[in-house]
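seq as requested:
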Amino acid sequence: YFNNAGKTPIPPAVHNAGVVALDQLANPWNLATDATPAVRRLFSQLIEANPSGTDIAICPSTGFAMTMIAHNLQRTNVIRTNKNVLVIRDEMSSEVYCWQEVCATCGARLIIVDFPQREEETEEEPCWTKEILDRIRTDGTTIGVVCVPQVHWSDGSLIDLKLVSAKCAEYDIKLVVDGTQSVGIHPFSVREIPCDALAVSVHKWLLGPVGMSLVYINPKWHTEWMPLDQHERSRVAFQDEAFDAMPSAMTEEGYPSEFVDGAARCDGGGKKNPVLMPMTEEALKIVNGLNLEEARDVVKRITDKIESSSRPLGFSVRPGPRASHIIGLRPGTPKLKALLTPGKMVSIVKTLREKGVYIVARSGAFRIAPYLNTSFEDVDRLITCLAEECIEAVEK
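C-alpha cells:
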C-alpha cells in the first residue's frame, strides 16, 4: 500500500475507539465525555502551540478551513486590490479554490510560482523555496498572503517554511500553511515557523478518520476572525444549558452574539461528531508518541530504494529537496514520456490496484507514499509491476 498520502490505514487502537463510540451513539444515553478538548490539546502538543488548545479550531475539511481563512483575510482587508495571493503551481485544489473566489470578488489576483527548473548557467539545485523567496523579493509589496504547503502533494518536494516565514514577516505578508501532507510524519512547529494559520486534514499522516481538519489560528486573530457558518456552538450564551431552558431568550436584536474565547469561535457548526472525535484523540496520541526523526529515517530508506530501483525503468524525480515520506516518479526518457500520457498513467494505476499495489497519479507523476510498515519486499513488488506496465518504453 503506497497511497498513505491519500489515506493512511486506521490503526487498531483508532479503529477500536470508533467501534466503542459507535456503540455508544446507538444508545445515546451512554455517550461518553466529549473528546473535543483533548483533541485540541493533543494537536497543540504536536505543533507546539498553546498547550491549552485555545489556538485550535475544528472544521469538517481543509477546504472548509481554507475558505474560512480566506474570507477572514479578505474581510480584514489583508486581500484587496494590489494585495494579492501567492500560491505554487499544481498545489492541491482545495488549497487554491478559496483564493480564486476571494480574489475574484475584491480585485486581487493569484500569483502562481512555477515549478523550479534547472538553469544551465548555474550548478545551483533548483528548489521551491528559492522560487518562492525570489518571487516575494520581486513582488513583495503587492502580496498580501502566501499560501503554501510544507510538502507538495504530488511528489514530496519540500519547502523550507522557516525561510518563507521569515521573508513573509520582512514584507508584512500573512502566511497560511496547508500541513496536510507533512504534519504527523515531518516536524512542524508554530514556534519555529510562525504563521497566521495552519490547516491539517486528520485522515492522512495524523492517522485519523475522514471528515475533519484541525486548524491552528494565530492568537492575534482570535478576536477578529469569524466562523464561516454562523451557529450557536461558537457563542458564549449557549455554553450554559440553562440558556436553552430560558423563556424568551431571544430579544428584539436576536440571540446574544458574544463568541467563545480563542480559535474555537471559528469552529465549523454542528455538534462535534461523537465517533470521529474519540478516534482522532486516539490517533493523535499515537502520532505524538512517534519519534519523527526516526520515522523519517525509516521511510527515507524506502523512498530512496524506490528512486534507485525505478531509475533503470526510465523514471526520474524532480530535482531539489524532497520529504522522506513521498516520492513522485516522473517519466524521464523520451519513450517513457511518450507512453505515459495522463490517461495511460490512470490506466496503470487501476491495473496495479487489481494486482494489490496501490499508488496514484498526480500532476504528471506516480505518487508513491509509504509508511512505517512498508517493506523492501513491497518496493520490489511495486517496481516489478511498473516494469511490466512500462516494458515497451524501457530502454534496452
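The chain has a mean pLDDT of 94.
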